[in-house]
Amino acid sequence: MDGVLDHLRVSMDSSSAAELAAFDPTLPVQPHPEQGLLARPLRCLSKIDCDNLNKMPRTVSTASGRQQLTYIHQVLQHPDRARYWRRTFKNVINVVDHGEVYRNPPDPRYTVDAAESEENVYKNRYTNIIPFDRNRVPLVNMHYDYINASFISMPLSNSTERDCAYIATQGPTKESILDFWRMVYQREVNLILCLSQLVESGRPKVDQYWIDNGSFLVPLDDGSQIQVTHVATETPDRPGELLTSFRRHIESGRRYKENDQVAMAFLQLGGITLRMFDLEYQSAQGTARAQVWQLASSAWPDHGVIAIDSLLAMIELSRFINVSIRNPLVVHCSAGCGRTGTFIAVDFLTRYLEDGLRFPEFDAHPDLVAAVVADLRRQRVQMVQALQQFQLVYESVARYLELIGIK
User: Fold this and answer.
1) Does position 34 have pLDDT exceeding 70, yes or no?
2) CA distances (Å), origin 364, targets 23, 25, 99, 143, 159
3) Superkingdom of this entry's organism (predicted)?
4) Structural domain of residue 204, as residue ranges?
């Protein structure tokens, strides 16, 4: 990582080294508020205007943001960083998992009654990766409202109404495919991130939840239905309108011109497949239609890491498609925690540091990465599951900020 954030380079004195070794991410996080979203008709999405996206130069606008960038840089430059990562990741697990989520007697914030009920347990792909009751995603107007999915709020916000920016969910099973599309419809989702292949190392990881070049019906309890149709596929080798627009956006956008590495990095889309789906809601009152994109990656191994530039390219493409955080981004791998949590952590951290978002709790954390991962694990179990993935978050954040020329 030589040359990363050179403008923020500071010497690692003895007090900084001691702070790195002693970090303890223990700040409390407010429980997720009850979600009250109602089902509503799908709406058509406007055509992406790539010429008006992301034209403004980026700066770190707060003193705390600059300090946090410096700290991340110090971690990456520290000769004993591998030991620091191991200790800090273990500390996050001890504080959150053993100290809160799995403690005895149980903490009421982390009940999983719905997921473990007899009528729902068969819907879980893995028995140990299940949503907490307080922030699970309920299906609307359905007699059986359970799906293995969690609302994920902006980490560490002190707002009483924390924005639901993401939905982290397991890879659909054959029992939950219809529920998955009900959730996508009801939560007005524009983009699905699929970070797992259907089969990995000979083991099924995700059941295919679409019909290639075909359609199927998803019934709702009120007599209405949703027709899901796969209408188009794009790959880097066979780009369509969206990938062509994205390439033009990267190659010509003023945001990227200060660093000639940016276009090369943000176009590292090997292993990416884009699928477009048409969703038609059909009821006695009429119909409504919307487009939903799926961005699928075959380049990220289970419990492992993806190439940094490939991850950042995927994040940049996802923002190009899903231009508003008001539409939650559905992210899944197989269990919906390891690769899913890593993607969400990097996406959020780069948004925060790039845009100068301001949350008071951040100022108390010297290590913003560890604090965010701890918060995510308070929202869904085992988010950022492996030490390699924890390390990837640090390296990806630093690489992203280097590429876009944060000042």
Assistant:
1) no
2) 11, 10, 20, 44, 16
3) Eukaryota
4) 51-404
